[in-house]
Structures are given as C-alpha cells and as structure tokens.
C-alpha cells in the first residue's frame, strides 16, 4: 500500500517572513490564513529556495497557492514539557494576487 502526504492551500500571507540560510539555500518561514466554516485558520509555512528575490512575492496581504506536505515536530522545553508544532513544508508557491493590484500568476519552482 502506498501513502500520500500532500496538501494544497490558498490563503493570505499574514506576516513578514523570517529568513535564514543553510547550505546556499534560503529558508522562509511565514504564516497564511485560510477560512473554514467562517473560522480563520492559521498555517505555519516553511519554504526552501535558492533565490532570495522570492521575498518580493512573500509579502503580508498577498494571496498565494501553496503545495506541500504536512510535517510534525515535537521537542521538550526547558521545563520538561513536550511541545508540538505542525507546519507545511512548501514544495511549490504560486502568487495569485498582489495586495491592491491586478491578479497575476507566477509559479515559483523549488
């Protein structure tokens, strides 16, 4: 039996991304919001890319399409309690709409 871990999200970027670098790759961490039954849900996104210019697309308020997989992380904090985090590891990012501008489509390969 084969298994599949894939997720597709369309949502608005909620914050300015945190950027780190590792082995000539940039790591962008940001959140996007989606709406489910009139409730806003926030998703933590991690996106790896060699091109730092992607920062021009990952801006608060832009509407984007995310394709990726779900990743679960757990660790113990200083007090010994287990901390759990769920994030989306993004494979593809597609800009759907710049905030206050016309709709454009731009596929960003990973």
Number of helices, where a helix is a run of at least 4 consecutive DSSP H or I residues: 0
SSE succession:
EEEEEEE
CATH class division: Mainly Beta
CATH topology: OB fold (Dihydrolipoamide Acetyltransferase, E2P)
SSE-based structural type: mainly beta
**Low-confidence segments:** 103-110
CATH architecture: Beta Barrel
* Count of structural domains: 1
Could you walk me through the main structural features you see in this protein, from its secondary elements to its overall organization?
The protein contains no helices and seven strands. The chain has a five-stranded mixed beta barrel with strand order 1-3-4-6-5. It has a single domain (7-108), classed as Nucleic acid-binding proteins (OB fold (Dihydrolipoamide Acetyltransferase, E2P)), CATH 2.40.50. It is globular, with a radius of gyration of 15 Å. With 110 residues, it is an all-beta fold. It has strands at residues 7-13, 18-22, 25-36, 39-49, 63-76, 82-97, 103-108.
